[in-house]
Design goal:
Chain lengths: 324, 280, 342
């Protein structure tokens, strides 16, 4: 690949052509073209993906238009499809997961970055990052056999404390939006911890020393000085976690209850976009049903694009600020 | 003097952060422990050598799924690693233009695409025109998933190579391509390998993209054009089945998959720390 | 460089060796109904033992999936518990340029299965009560409509948890077909299909998913194929038939349902709520969906051979798995129909 020099090439005539051959022989242009082609492949693949999704969802887009996003009937028999229950289920489970995961994750990140000795911090971070590597189907497996029975036995306690809110009312069957949220918490927390920890570590030490010198306690220096400094980066980690939880398929499918209705209570079953695609895609017999599922995929894609975009912007803007 | 309230606040909040850490680490240890007790202990040699038995008959294993996963990962690597790696070289060495900004942004978008959507993509692209489920289409789906991570990780690791090394090489008369090939890439080698391994570990556990592509197979899957069983898909089908025997096998399979993924992760990180620099 | 070459050639060698060793194999892929999955998986396994060169990979992805995938041509044949409707048959012809044939394989029954802590006796259900439970109009276990037919059983006043299929399923077709016959309201509001817009309930994927959910959820009721209830030792109820008897699903009561059925030439027939004494009302045939035109000669031969074996020796294995064998007269007609596969 390194273009070994051959006599034939060395014997090229002088002039412009020779400069060209010189560059070609040294491999710069070849390397440039090859690597650029590969980089371009990413654009091509993404474009093709969007194109395929767009093309294959033409039927429901023509039939339902924008109302696809706002209606809540999912009736394969009558050929009526509305995405709202799935969007609702996806957004609610992810939001609840974030509400639980953010304090837990940021708290752990503070401990690892500010308090724990470096060696312990590194070891624990290593363990937590392994948690991010556990395949989602295994989370689903644990979800079905441990989390769901566990939540059923915890139900009276949850009800006693929070039962007065509409969020925890109604019958509880184990599989529910709550179960899905809890599985998501476990899945996204490693992201929040490991990114937030890095951002907090990147906060210049002078900031802390300054606060401590002014008489602040360790907590006050962390809460009032370090966290505001790292805020954007932490927000970025949260958005990344959100993007991941929105698209999570297997673990959610296995515990959410697969009911395409909008329920106010977290105890009730729900359905997410990714779950309905996994359940129904292989067996959607008519073109409209299949198209509706592909349009759902497009909706999910759009949702993740927006959230990823926001996350990248936030992380990038702190990276540049934090390092100077 | 510090007020008692501020001191108490300090103590309480700081211990709470410790509790958070304990919870997170505790969950991991619990998962490992539980899988070990439930899956590891009932793991038999048959699991690695036998085909699945028909429904209702005890015994059998998932040998075909292990081989199937290996084949899928091989195709995924053949697709994802070269494209991702070379794309990463472009961004790190020739980048800087607005084109590379677009590439970077698209890479992040592609990385954020839910795996189930990638599965549909491979289905419409390969399965429907070809008229059959295949190992190839499953590998393609996984390969597409590998590309964005491979690009970003190789870019990061290549960028971490000090500029002085490149300058030194070019000062000695080497062309840019030659410097990259003989100086920069070897310097980043351990990082690049780590990146590939972590990437592989991630897609090894992917289930959703395989459901409509590699499908599943109760028998061995010869060649590349037949549907094949894969470990994560088997875990899924066995877990939602009503048979206690299959649940047991799902646990065993989960244990094997987790051990595999963790082993790759730990080895990769070990290679990285041996290799010296860490690219952040 | 040499090492890379070695790796590449090793990979090539392995894949080539694989292809040669498998060259004589006839590999057939099929997918569909979960209702007869235990039977099919046994059949395909036995058939493979007898004919080692024939390997039929059957995946139970649901009847809707079976219809969809055979129509898309991604599997060699499909399987379903609810016959394809006219529109689906037309779709198939348009896409594939030939017809699709239905071959009944066994008879099965769908049973209402429940998990009520403390109740061990078998409950009696009327069709109307089942329809109202699944419509969400009966919400408590001690509702008069259930209590009336279960004198002497102390039903709890807990909420009923309805579990249904989340995927397209022939089991759902049979179930909703029966409920449509039992309740006008069900027929107009929900109707019969492989997947419907459920008024209430949790979704489980496959017979497996539904039985799994029922076992894990107290006070639940769902519907599964008889074998799933038997194999998993789940409680299931008797159902009132057209003659007013409460009948338990069994080999005899299901066979009775098929005995008097008038089966048309394309074998698409519903036998739910069939008349006659001792008939279990939620019985059904289950079908293999075989394209009338199979271009690959080896596959065609294998599929034909398998069908013949299934209608002969295969039928003898049905009872151990709680399926009812096909009536003799029907087998003779099917053997003739095999010749339609070109």
């Amino acid at each position: 690949m390194a273009a070994p020099s051959t006599p034939a090439l060395d014997a090229r005539p002088e002039g412009r052509a020779s400069a060209f051959w010189q560059r070609l022989r040294s491999g710069d242009d070849i390397a440039y073209v090859i690597t650029m082609t590969c980089a371009f492949t990413v654009l091509a693949v993404t474009a093709l993906l969007v194109f395929e999704l767009y093309l294959n969802s033409a039927l429901p887009r023509q039939k339902f238009g924008w109302s696809f996003l706002a209606t809540s009937v999912w009736d394969p028999v009558a050929g009526e499809f509305g995405a709202l229950p799935f969007i609702y289920g996806t957004v609610v489970t992810s939001a609840v997961a974030l509400i639980l995961a953010v304090p837990l994750g940021v708290g752990a990140a503070i401990f690892l970055a500010e308090l724990a000795p470096a060696r312990i911090s590194n070891a624990l971070t290593f363990l937590i990052e392994l948690l991010a590597a556990v395949p989602s189907v295994i989370y689903g497996l644990l979800g079905i056999f441990i989390l769901v029975p566990g939540l059923i036995s915890l139900e009276p306690a949850i009800r006693a404390v929070l039962g007065w809110t509409p969020l925890f009312s109604g019958p509880f069957y184990g599989v529910s939006m709550l179960s899905a949220s809890v599985v998501l918490v476990v899945m996204i927390i490693p992201f929040i911890i490991s990114i937030s920890r890095e951002v907090i570590l990147a906060v210049p030490n002078e900031q802390r020393e300054g606060a401590l010198a002014l008489g602040a306690t360790r907590w006050e220096s962390t809460w009032d000085v370090v966290l505001p400094f790292a805020k954007k980066g932490i927000m970025g980690s949260i958005f990344l976690a959100l993007a991941r939880s929105l698209g999570e398929t297997m673990a959610v499918t296995m515990v959410i209850g697969n009911d395409p209705k909008i329920h106010g209570s977290l105890f009730a079953p729900g359905y997410s976009i990714a779950a309905v695609i996994a359940n129904e895609f292989a067996e959607a017999t008519d073109a409209l049903h299949q198209g509706a599922l592909i349009e759902l995929a497009l909706v999910l894609f759009g949702l993740t694009i927006v959230i990823n975009g926001v996350a990248r912007v936030l992380v990038l803007s702190t990276n540049t600020k934090g390092s100077t | 003097m510090l007020s008692f309230r501020r001191k108490a606040m300090n103590a309480v909040m700081l211990s709470l952060t410790g509790v958070c850490t304990l919870v997170a680490v505790g969950v991991l240890l619990f998962i490992l422990g539980y899988l070990f007790i439930h899956g590891g202990i009932s793991l038999t040699w048959d699991f690695f050598t036998q085909l699945p038995k028909p429904v209702g008959e005890p015994g059998g294993g998932m040998a075909n799924a292990l081989l199937g996963s290996a084949k899928l990962l091989m195709i995924a690597m053949l697709i994802g690693v070269p494209i991702g790696f070379l794309g990463g070289v472009y961004l790190a060495e020739f980048g800087g233009s607005s084109f590379s900004f677009v590439v970077r942004y698209t890479t992040d978008l592609l990385n954020g695409v839910p795996s189930i959507v990638i599965g549909i993509f491979a289905y419409t692209l390969l399965v429907l025109p070809q008229k059959h489920f295949s190992t190839l289409s499953g590998g393609l789906a996984l390969g597409v998933m590998m590309i964005p991570i491979a690009i970003r990780s190789s870019e990061d690791f290549l960028r971490a190579v000090p500029l002085s090394l490149r300058e030194g090489s070019m000062a000695l008369g080497a062309s840019k391509a030659r410097s990259i090939l003989t100086v920069v890439i070897p310097a980043a080698k351990s990082g690049l390998i780590t990146g590939i391994m972590l990437n592989l570990a991630r897609v090894a556990g992917e289930t959703a993209p395989l459901l409509f592509t590699s499908f599943s197979n109760r028998f061995w899957s010869p060649g590349w054009e037949q549907p094949t069983a894969a470990l994560p898909v088997m875990i899924y089908t066995y877990a939602i089945s009503p048979y206690a025997d299959w649940h047991q096998q799902a646990w065993s399979a989960g244990f094997v998959l987790l051990m595999l993924v963790l082993a790759i992760n730990i080895t990769a990180r070990a290679i990285l720390s041996k290799g010296g620099h860490v690219a952040r | 460089m040499t090492r890379r070459f070695a790796i590449v050639s090793a990979v090539l060698a392995v894949s080539l060796a694989g292809n040669i060793a498998w060259a004589q194999q006839v590999l057939i892929n099929a997918a569909g109904a979960t209702f007869p999955y235990p039977m099919y998986s046994k059949w395909f396994d036995e058939y493979h033992k007898k004919h080692p060169t024939a390997q039929i990979n059957y995946q139970s992805i649901g009847s809707g999936g079976g219809i969809a995938q055979v129509t898309n041509g991604t599997v060699d044949f499909g399987a379903t518990d609810g016959p394809m409707n006219d529109k689906q048959m037309k779709d198939f012809e348009e896409k594939r340029g030939s017809a699709i044939l239905h071959f009944p394989t066994v008879l099965g029954a769908v049973v209402p299965t429940y998990n009520i802590p403390g109740i061990t006796s078998q409950l009696n259900f009327t069709g109307e009560a089942l329809a109202e439970i699944f419509l969400g109009k009966i919400t408590k276990w001690d509702d008069p409509a259930i209590a009336k037919t279960n004198a002497g059983v102390k039903l709890p006043s807990n909420n009923i948890v309805v579990v249904h299929r989340s995927d397209g399923s022939g089991t759902t077709y049979v179930w909703t077909d029966y409920l449509s016959k039992a309740s006008k309201e069900w027929e107009t509001k929900v109707g019969r299909a492989n997947s419907v817009n459920w008024p209430v309930g949790l979704g489980g994927k496959g017979n497996e998913g539904v039985s799994g959910s029922i076992q894990q959820t107290a006070n639940s009721i769902g519907y599964v194929e008889l074998i799933y209830a038997v194999q998993n030792k789940m409680s299931y109820g008797k159902v009132k038939n057209a003659e007013g008897e409460f009948v338990q699903a069994s080999l005899a009561s299901v066979t009775a349902a098929a005995a008097k059925a008038v089966v048309p030439d394309d074998f698409r027939v519903s036998i739910t709520d069939a008349p006659g004494k001792g008939v279990y009302p939620i019985s059904s045939f289950t079908w293999l969906l075989i394209p009338a035109k199979i271009t690959d000669a080896a596959k065609k031969q294998t599929i034909k051979d398998f069908l013949k074996w299934m209608l002969g020796d295969g039928q003898k294995m049905t009872e151990t798995l709680s399926y009812s064998a096909l009536p003799k007269a029907l087998i003779a007609r099917e053997l003739k129909a095999i010749e339609k596969i070109q």
